[in-house]
Amino acid sequence: MNKQQLIDNIRRKQTFLCVGLDTDIKKIPQHLLREDDPVFAFNRAIIDATADLCIAYKPNLAFYECLGTKGWQALEKTVRYLREHHPDQFIIADAKRGDIGNTSAMYARSFFEDLKVDAVTVAPYMGEDSVTPFLGYDNAWVILLALTSNKGSHDFQLTADAQGERLFEKVLRRSQQWAGPDQMMYVVGATQGRMFEDIRRIAPDHFLLVPGVGAQGGSLEEVCKYGMTKDCGLIVNSSRGIIYADNTENFAAAARQAAQEVQAQMAVQLKAIR
Amino acid sequence: MNKQQLIDNIRRKQTFLCVGLDTDIKKIPQHLLREDDPVFAFNRAIIDATADLCIAYKPNLAFYECLGTKGWQALEKTVRYLREHHPDQFIIADAKRGDIGNTSAMYARSFFEDLKVDAVTVAPYMGEDSVTPFLGYDNAWVILLALTSNKGSHDFQLTADAQGERLFEKVLRRSQQWAGPDQMMYVVGATQGRMFEDIRRIAPDHFLLVPGVGAQGGSLEEVCKYGMTKDCGLIVNSSRGIIYADNTENFAAAARQAAQEVQAQMAVQLKAIR
Fold this sequence. Notes:
8-stranded parallel β-barrel, 8 strands, homodimer, alpha/beta, TIM Barrel
């Protein structure tokens, strides 16, 4: 999916919600454990209940890998299901990969050629040649970690160099030499509040993938106030707040309701840029 | 495996070689493609040919993930084979993971509870709470990226803060508050030469996992000169130089010969600390 298609989807559906598929077999409703593939059954139900309210899904690879081959199958089936039944969805593999060139090239092959997702999250620590192998595909995106939502983001990301430039700012600035806003996005945690102002000074046109609304405590209003662009420029993720809204047989309807509440707030925010 | 066992293995076998299982189905000998599981068949032959010459194996997750469920199976079989037939080997999942706490906890579960490896490589960008979930297991190690072997290591890892401390030094220093040398190692590329001196000033007792000898051009002698401790303190990895020494039916014998050459050089270096 290219940038214009993503923007069109946001305007048409009046939402910039990404539903995080952090599907934990220990947390899904009991009755699904009778299914052949409980993780896929859960995902399919969540997707069908929320697809008109969001523009992206973000499976978190950790939750699939921890089930070994079964988890990997559930992931493949989930992506294929999205492609077949909800082709307007932007699919993000939240993998936070990044390695030396030939290894990153293998990861890129997995995600873009085999799994066929639209975007992969990548960690910047190893620099340019760990990121660029992900950039050799059409309509495929790198979402680079910039300023994350967790407490540990303060350990290294905020360290300023002798000129006062903080590490996350250096990542934003330098990575723009590797790809433009048509191929790269950045992860910025919703918990970072006014830091979105600083980020928009360096990356005014890039889409930002924003985790941390909901369970992690970030505010949608604040994110929009400081981070929204004329094209929206935001994909705001919610995982636990939506997919685990309820863990009875009513889980899909409850997920839908939780997504509806977020979508309604997003529609209000989008009015500001009409 | 604990630190003393690792040191004992190094002394007994007179080697600190790690063989990197970067098994690429496109590079393995043609005749193996007739096997049910060519990747596992290749790994098993390489392992049996080299196990007395090395103390560790390091499957690189990218090369397994790119084959989807089949790759994951080959990885599981490889680890199980090592556990059953070569229980003195230290097994490193080269995964370079790192995510918010609950996600890192899922990765830790995959690697330490399900796959049952000894160590996982972890990227430090997201800070403390992305690393500590990997530290909750007995005799299980985090190998944190410090100064990597690739060109991109210069992009961010060498950036100095206002006090002159470089990012990789900050990672070495701060992460020592999270775990000691009995549970944490660091990745330092063999291409970094004299930087090993700086690293030993901050981390005198930690084991270092050193990629970059061989195909990437690092020198074993230089690594030992500046990085070796009285307990050796080094695990030097070679992947392509050993496993792809030959791609005919003779590949395993050729891998053995390549490993033998490295082991002989290592035995010479180990004499210095006897």
